[in-house]
Amino acid sequence: MDINMSSPDLKKNGIPPGPAILAGAERREAERSEAGRSGAAAKIAASQAAPAGPDPEVVADAKRRRFTLDYKLRILKEAEAAKNRPGAVGALLRREGLYSSYLVMWRRERDAGLRQALTPKTRGPKPKRDARQQEIDQLRRENARLTEALRKAELIIDVQKKVGALLGWDLPKRGRTENS
Length: 180
Prior knowledge:
single chain, mainly alpha, 53% helix
C-alpha cells in the first residue's frame, strides 16, 4: 500500500492514515474499476439503460413523400387563409409535417402558371429515345449479330471445302441436281 506523505492528516498529527481514513479517500463510485463487475451495480445500470421495447416512433421503411396536385393546392389555399392570423401558418405546417420551403416552391410554381409542374415528378433518368428509335436500335443489334453468325458459318464452309479437296471428295456443284 502506497501512503501519500503529503496527506493533511499526516501534517496535523504526524500519524499515517489508517484503513478507515483510506476508505474515505477512495475514488468515487462512478470511478471504481469494479463497478462494471459488481452484480448489483450492473443490474441497476441495465434496468435503467435497457428500453422496454422498440421505439414506436421509428418508421420501418422510410419512403419519400409524394404530394398530389390536389394536396398541394389545398395546403396553399389553407396557408393563404391563415396568413393573417399569427402562428397559424406554422401550426398548419406542423400539423401536416411540412417545411416552409415547400410552400415557397409550390407558390412559385403556381404563380408561374406551371400547373403541370405541381404534379409529382418521376425520379430517375428520363428516357432519351422514343419507341421507334428503340426498335431501330434493337433491329440493328440483331442484324449485327446475324451478320457475325453468317461470317462464321461461311468461314466454316470454306474450311470444309478445303478439307474435302485435300481428301479428294467430290463436292456437288451448285445449281445442278443429280438427275440433270
